[in-house]
Amino acid sequence: MSDESLFYPPKMGKIMLLGMEEIMGGNGVGALLELPLLGNSVPHPLSASSNHAFSFETISSLQSALELIYGPHGGRGMALRIGRACFKYGLKEYGSLLGLTEMTFRLLSLPVKFHIGAKAFADLFNKHTDQRVRVEEREDEILWHIERCPLCWERKAEEPVCHLAVGLLQESLSWLSGGKIFDVKETACIARGDAACTIAIDRTPLS
Ligand SMILES: [Zn+2]
Q1: Cβ contacts of residue 76 below 8 Å, gap of 6+?
Q2: What tens digit of pLDDT does each residue of 7-41 get?
Q3: What is the pLDDT of residues 46-91, one digit of tens each?
Q4: Residue 155 alpha carbon to ligand 1 centre in Å
Q5: What CATH number does residue 137 fall under?
Q6: Cα 41 to Cα 163: distance, rounded to the nearest angstrom
Q7: Is residue 181 part of a domain?
Q8: Is 71 helix (H, G, I), strand (E, B) or coil?
Q9: Ligand 1 centroid to 6 CA: how many Å?
Q10: What is the pTM of this model?
């Protein structure tokens, strides 16, 4: 591995594997990790990966592998579900660090929670990983710009492919709002030639 490689730390990679295991089952993850595409880049079982940093190449290959196994449409659905599942593992690992689980935070109004939560969540990636996120707050929506994105790292695609991030944000919004559902979609993707992977979050819940 070259010095220039970009990484997720072991904890963050493990959260992704836990989410995959919850949705695909241990055998499903095992089969996926054996694909030539992954080139033995992730140790398995999960317990073996506790000190293993995840390169952006590996994280991107994991997304491609989902599409390979389940087809483009099925792979997208799985990545969304995995992203949603990852949230609770992430909250368990990082929630108190971010101050999101404190009672004072829980009592804030939803717009304030969105403002503070988005900033804290972006900081988590910016400070603890090589992923870069910029939050842009507009009147009707919040734009989550992933300016350096591991999910589509070195990929080329016709449509946005960072579905795991969409699922993760959907679940974080549901948690922040006490169970509401929001319209969350990826509107731009580096894999498609855009400058950033942009996920647009409508501030008004669907339900
Ligand atoms: Zn991306």
Answers
A1: 67, 161, 163
A2: 999 999 999 999 999 999 999 999 999 999 998 89
A3: 777 778 899 999 999 999 999 999 999 999 999 999 999 999 999 9
A4: 9
A5: 3.90.1520.10
A6: 22
A7: yes
A8: helix
A9: 14
A10: 0.95
